[in-house]
């Protein structure tokens, strides 16, 4: 037996990012600098986060005109706002006078946007309405807040900071929309929202989400979630065969329910080779099959949208680079990751329930949030442990298992997109 005692011959830190990308070994995790180097973090911000569509908020967070959330991404701050015509707008949080930040809070509500410095005042559509002591020749129409590309799709809000956003986004959303529309997320309210500062690079947070190889670390999740992500009937290990049998039955029931309700059913998986990589799978749930709760029972008495069946599994959508979504008959839980620095990320989790659902009557917050709070906490530990490990000089990329295909697809997508951006 040979025991490898030495560090890898090539020092990764001395290679350029382009070289590191070019020598990435498919089927293996990334080299250490991708998880820790501040220069690569800077490239990630510019080449990934400023160049792609990002899921940043839900329409439920902006029920009334003037409601806003601010999105902080490295040096950029973006205001996402409900305008007076009930549309969703996004602007750079930068005054057109001398550049002051306009809004400081993560969310709130305003009549107009008034700069705290010299009180230039903008409408909810971004137009400059008032600026004191200006000559009559001032062209106010040229001094609107600078817009940011924004799309509201079935109640989910995406922004893109690129001058020319990836052009495949609308086509992807057209394909996803028939699956999301029945849940009517525009008619929901925020029951709960939690931010976690993950002690890990944003890619470690995403990679962890993209596999269930570690799912025995999630006992609460496994009361409802079938830990079969990435398995087929052929490679399902013996210990999971009883689970597989339950899964097959639940999947057949779900297919029948979709057919009865006239909803689409096919899985879609185009994670790697397009700018807006995505995966959508309407998966059955274990136990009672309805929701994320101890026995798979519903956790909210009011169903979402036009769903006519409590036992309607989990419509889950994964989007590159920063989000995933679980839509159940009785609630939705949506996740957005934003990078903070090379080794820290913010994970925001938002629980949505039907707009008229009443806490304490239709749902109880502790039950609604139990499974994903527990799962998020467990995942944070996995992410932080991995961050510490990949910072160790002994770390070398390791091979993905057969059930980590979506991690490999995420990493492949990242390598493709950053390579394309660097050679633009
Ligand atoms: O949240 C998710 O979609 C993933 C899929 C596998 C593990 N994790 C629960
Ligand atoms: Fe905003 Fe002067 S910087 S009004």
Automatic annotation (TrEMBL):
One Gene Ontology MF term: iron ion binding
Record flagged with keyword Oxidoreductase: yes
Cofactor(s) listed: Fe cation
Listed PROSITE patterns: RIESKE
Domain Rieske per the UniProt entry, residue ranges: 53-159
Domain of life of the native organism: Bacteria
Alphabetical list of InterPro entries matching this protein: Rieske_2Fe-2S (IPR017941), Rieske_2Fe-2S_sf (IPR036922), Ring_hydroxy_dOase_asu_C_dom (IPR015879), Rng_hydr_dOase-A (IPR001663)
Record keyword Nucleotide-binding present: no
Keywords in alphabetical order: 2Fe-2S, Iron, Iron-sulfur, Metal-binding, Oxidoreductase
Stated name of the protein: Putative iron-sulfur protein
Organism: Kineosphaera limosa NBRC 100340
Source taxonomy: Bacteria, Bacillati, Actinomycetota, Actinomycetes, Micrococcales
């Amino acid at each position: 037996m040979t025991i490898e005692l030495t560090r890898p011959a090539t020092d990764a830190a001395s290679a350029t990012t382009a070289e590191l990308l070019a020598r990435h070994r498919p089927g293996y995790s990334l080299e250490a600098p991708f998880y820790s180097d501040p220069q690569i973090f800077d490239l990630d911000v510019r080449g990934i986060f400023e160049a792609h569509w990002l899921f940043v908020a839900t329409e439920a967070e902006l029920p009334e005109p003037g409601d806003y959330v601010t999105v902080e991404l490295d040096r950029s701050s973006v205001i996402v706002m409900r305008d007076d015509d009930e549309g969703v707008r996004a602007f750079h949080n930068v005054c057109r006078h001398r550049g002051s930040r306009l809004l400081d809070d993560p969310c709130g509500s305003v009549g107009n946007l008034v700069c705290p410095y010299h009180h230039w005042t903008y409408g909810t559509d971004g137009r400059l309405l008032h600026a004191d002591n200006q000559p009559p020749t001032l062209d106010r129409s040229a001094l609107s807040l600078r817009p940011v590309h924004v799309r509201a799709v079935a109640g989910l809000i995406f922004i893109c900071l690129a001058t020319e956003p990836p052009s495949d986004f609308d086509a992807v959303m057209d394909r996803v929309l028939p699956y999301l529309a029945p849940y009517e997320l525009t008619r929901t309210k925020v029951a709960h929202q939690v931010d976690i500062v993950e002690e890990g690079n944003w890619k470690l947070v995403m990679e962890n989400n993209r596999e269930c190889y570690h799912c025995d670390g999630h006992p609460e999740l496994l009361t409802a979630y079938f830990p079969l992500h990435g398995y087929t009937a052929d490679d399902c290990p013996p210990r999971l065969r009883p689970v597989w049998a339950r899964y097959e039955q639940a999947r057949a029931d779900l297919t029948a329910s979709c057919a009865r309700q006239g909803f689409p059913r096919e899985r879609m998986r185009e994670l790697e080779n397009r700018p807006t990589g995505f995966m959508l799978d309407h998966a059955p749930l274990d136990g009672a099959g309805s929701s994320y709760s101890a026995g798979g029972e519903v956790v909210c008495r009011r169903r979402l949208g036009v769903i006519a069946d409590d036992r309607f599994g989990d419509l889950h959508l994964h989007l590159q680079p920063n989000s995933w979504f679980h839509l159940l008959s009785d609630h939705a839980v949506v996740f957005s990751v934003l990078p903070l620095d090379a080794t820290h990320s913010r994970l925001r989790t938002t629980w949505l329930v039907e707009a008229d659902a009443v806490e304490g009557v239709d749902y109880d917050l502790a039950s609604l949030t139990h499974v994903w709070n527990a799962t998020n906490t467990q995942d944070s530990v996995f992410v932080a442990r991995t961050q510490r490990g990949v910072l160790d000089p002994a770390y070398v990329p390791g091979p993905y298992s057969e059930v980590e295909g979506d991690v490999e697809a995420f990493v492949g997508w990242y390598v493709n997109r950053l390579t394309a951006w660097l050679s633009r």
